[in-house]
Amino acid sequence: xxxxxxxxxxxxxxxxxxxxxxxxxxxxxxxxxxxxxxxxxxxxxxxxxxxxxxxxxxxxxxxxxxxxxxxxxxxxxxxxxxxxxxxxxxxxxxxxxxxxxxxxxxxxxxxxxxxxxxxxxxxxxxxxxxxxxxxxxxxxxxxxxxxxxxxxxxxxxxxxxxxxxxxxxxxxxxxxxxxxxxxxxxxxxxxxxxxxxxxxxxxxxxxxxxxxxxxxxxxxxxxxxxxxxxxxxxxxxxxxxxxxxxxxxxxxxxxxxxxxxxxxxxxxxxxxxxxxxxxxxxxxxxxxxxxxxxxxxxxxxxxxxxxxxxxxxxxxxxx
Amino acid sequence: xxxxxxxxxxxxxxxxxxxxxxxxxxxxxxxxxxxxxxxxxxxxxxxxxxxxxxxxxxxxxxxxxxxxxxxxxxxxxxxxxxxxxxxxxxxxxxxxxxxxxxxxxxxxxxxxxxxxxxxxxxxxxxxxxxxxxxxxxxxxxxxxxxxxxxxxxxxxxxxxxxxxxxxxxxxxxxxxxxxxxxxxxxxxxxxxxxxxxxxxxxxxxxxxxxxxxxxxxxxxxxxxxxxxxxxxxxxxxxxxxxxxxxxxxxxxxxxxxxxxxxxxxxxxxxxxxxxxxxxxxxxxxxxxxxxxxxxxxxxxxxxxxxxxxxxxxxxxxxxxxxxxx
Lengths: 319, 325
Ligand SMILES: Cc1ncc(C[n+]2csc(CCOP(=O)(O)OP(=O)(O)O)c2C)c(N)n1
Ligand SMILES: [Mg+2]
What we know:
The complex is a heterodimer of chains A (319) and B (325).
Chain A: H1 5-30, H2 45-52, E1 60-62, H3 68-73, H4 78-85, H5 119-133, E2 139-144, H6 151-163, E3 167-173, E4 176-177, E5 180-181, H7 182-185, E6 202-206, H8 210-225, E7 231-236, H9 254-261, H10 265-276, H11 281-303
Parallel strand pairs in A: 1-2, 2-3, 3-7, 6-7
Antiparallel strand pairs in A: 4-5
Helix pairs in contact in A: 1-2, 1-10, 1-11, 2-8, 4-11, 5-6
Chain B: E1 2-5, H1 6-20, E2 24-28, H2 45-48, E3 52-54, H3 59-71, E4 75-79, H4 90-97, H5 100-103, E5 113-118, H6 133-137, E6 143-145, H7 150-162, E7 167-172, E8 179-182, E9 195-198, E10 203-207, H8 211-223, E11 229-233, E12 236-238, H9 242-252, E13 255-262, H10 267-277, E14 289-293, H11 302-307, H12 312-322
Parallel strand pairs in B: 2-3, 2-4, 4-5, 5-7, 6-7, 10-11, 10-13, 13-14
Antiparallel strand pairs in B: 1-8, 6-12, 9-11
Helix pairs in contact in B: 1-7, 3-4, 8-12
The complex binds thiamine diphosphate and magnesium ion.
């Protein structure tokens, strides 16, 4: 599984885009420029990007309440994302959805979800459709450790195992569902163990190592595309920031957070690139600068966009 | 009496019920050291570790398990983090909790409370913002309350815990940080009783939950137009206090119902039908009016979100239009 230089640089850029986008959102939140709530993906970038790197552009994903990372990794336009967060008519959902409901049909992104585990049966259904239509597409279903305790997780994986559906379930185990540590919410030690019950492979990866994530997901995607069925991948990672906007993080220690920050997936990938490729520091620096520019443009686009018209309140209720 | 926040009055009721009855306990997500998504159980964990059962994210399982515990003598209070998530345990609410008493010829009872925050106004968008208590009021066997004041939230929670039936308990998020008088002593606010919050002679405004403070505010403003509005807090959708409403309408002859739920098939339609079927019908001198949420999922954009549910100014305007003022 050789990764081309072009692909490696793409992966790096997407991770940086996610990191910088989220930090910008955090800043806007603190300035009260973003309404509602937001769940940020800082620290988990390698999972979304490593996974989406294994997909074709027309493959599908389903995402979660913590969805900005998946959305960017699948190729979304940062301008339309930022505009959505500012509630603007130019946003992906025309200002109707906000952070938890971003969908991008053009990149096969079936959407974030405000309901924990809401996307799991939906991904399963998309995969069922691919099987029925024989369109050779694969669906990646992202969800958290907490989501794996909803009933639909079990119902969905059973169907996918039974019908050998072309879907890859990626559980982002960031050790907590809101304040609840996995050890207090989940009867098994590793969520990947549950794959056995549904007759599919269960794989554990270091979620902060983008190359490892990519390899595991690529294998699962290839397998799914060959018609051999679903895989459950558990990606062990950590969210650096609070669960949502106003989380004092009383349920974990600052030391634990520092430990995980040392495992920064972006820094690790930089090291990997330095050690195993001829990509230079300058090239990476240039990407960082380019992304900074991109984020600023997205922000300017969003802030200068119009709000939806109140008269259009009832538009889009029905198709 | 002292002034307390709605959220504090609610927490006080929970603690006092924990202390009063060893069978009362609570289940829910993040209700331990985190204190619940809105902070209702904040600071309780130290003292009430054994009473606060922190669960995985498994709403169907949580409510189903609460039904089972209730059947064998416990009195569970379940916290569902947002009322939107009540769709997940719907089976155990509608097919189990609501029917078990009747189906078993009175052998079983399900004394449980499901508490849950509802409503828009925080930018949480469509899956975290709806108000739909009316859906549950449609189901025989369930009781449904939605207290609007700190006094009522404490008294009604206690009444709900002590009731032998499943009670759905809706707390509008914007009410948590409102203040009001709350007595120190133990008291109950009866389920199924409405209350006249403001006496008036020209029109009856029937409100519930968040629309109560909005209607009271509107009533003050309506004075400047020479309109003297009576405001009734419905408090309980099931059972519904017909008597209080009917009496008021006989007095005023005009009625406006203000709901935070979206309008179609809303609770206001039920109140309206009760009035039309009652003796109050003969006293009506103006068509019954309803002001309710628009029939849309709650949008994210703040202007749209505000426009989706009745605000104080909408109530003022509606009443003025009735009086051509
Ligand atoms: C059905 C449902 N229950 C509860 C919530 C509230 N909630 C939102 S995110 C969350 C934690 C989810 O944890 P996890 O699946 O591990 O994802 P993470 O936030 O860690 O990415 C909870 C409890 C919800 N949105 N939907
Ligand atoms: Mg988690």
